[in-house]
Amino acid sequence: MFVNRREVQIQWGDCDPANIVYYPRYFAMFDDSTSTLFEVAGFSKQDLVRKYGLVGIPMVDTRAKFYIPSTYGDWITIETRIESIKRSSFEVKHNVYKAEALAIEGFETRVLVGRDPVNPDKLKSAPFPAEMVAKFTGS
């Protein structure tokens, strides 16, 4: 599986009054990590639009398990990979490490979406391109 790792320093604005990361901020970090995964794999947002006719990869489900809190100034590593791919939907997993310890597991279900060819005012799920499947799964 194709994996991307990125280092993130926790900022003042990420934290609540108790100086721990306010949990919705992690979901924003996960969203950035998914976008970065596609970019690093060679599929920029411009490619998704121009080459594949997609308008985005919206999230349809998300959840997380929190084990270790982070505070202002901490460095975390977010490791992101696509766990499985179906026709148009896919599962993303984010492992967040604080030093060597697993701090958070994040999960997303996303869908490739393009314009409906019958009615361009509507969106419709789009099949995962074979070259993307090969890149993300290694097959």
UniProtKB/TrEMBL annotation:
Hydrolase recorded as keyword: yes
GO molecular function annotations of the record: fatty acyl-CoA hydrolase activity
InterPro entries per the UniProt record, alphabetical: 4-hydroxybenzoyl-CoA_TE, HotDog_dom_sf
Keywords: Hydrolase
Pfam families, per database record: 4HBT_2
Protein name: 4-hydroxybenzoyl-CoA thioesterase
Organism: Bradyrhizobium nanningense
